[in-house]
Write a structure and sequence with these properties.
single chain; 175 residues; mainly alpha; Helix Hairpins
Length: 175
């Protein structure tokens, strides 16, 4: 089942999140297992399975990076293994610089300012890459899709750095 079709949405990256939520709630109400409390075991099982599928579809479409990956999968674009290394040396160097910035935060004279600076840097670079991904996904051709895969992988890396920054921030400011 195509998640976009399930929700009655066009297969495009930009979605109306309000409509997505409304359709999700409507679909969940229709198949919620509680509605089948007096049904047969098979009806109960089917209700649970449909509810889980609708939930998976919603979680995928709601999250922009998951949605991008799903769209690329629908288009038949091969997603490389997470351990596959990047061939973009400039990106790899930048990631090393960002990791160094992250490691130096705890030694900064003004930790608040250091956290703010790296957060701004991560947000800015993520935003630029995210816009590039959006453009590639709207082109809808195999060359653009292959480039979109690389952007998506890079965006996931920025997401991981953000999680690491959040953890570091919690550690440093946990009084």
């Amino acid at each position: 089942m195509n998640y976009f079709q399930l929700f009655g949405l066009s297969e495009k990256f930009t979605l109306d999140n309000t409509k997505l939520l409304e359709v999700y709630q409507t679909l969940q109400k229709a198949v919620h297992p509680d509605r089948f409390a007096n049904g047969t075991n098979q009806e109960k099982l089917i209700a649970v399975q449909k509810s889980a599928m609708i939930n998976d579809a919603y979680q995928t479409l709601k999250n922009p990076l998951k949605r991008a990956g799903y769209m690329l999968k629908l288009r038949g674009t091969e997603m490389p293994n997470e351990q596959t290394s990047f061939s973009d040396n400039a990106f790899l160097m930048r990631q090393m610089e960002l990791r160094e910035m992250l490691a130096e935060v705890k030694f900064a004279d003004d930790i608040d300012a250091a956290v703010f600076e790296i957060n701004q840097t991560l947000d800015s670079e993520f935003s630029l890459l995210f816009k590039a991904l959006q453009i590639k996904l709207t082109e809808c051709n195999s060359a653009a899709d292959k480039l979109a895969v690389e952007d998506l992988r890079k965006l996931k890396f920025y997401q991981k750095l953000h999680v690491e920054l959040d953890r570091l921030e919690d550690l440093l400011f946990d009084d």
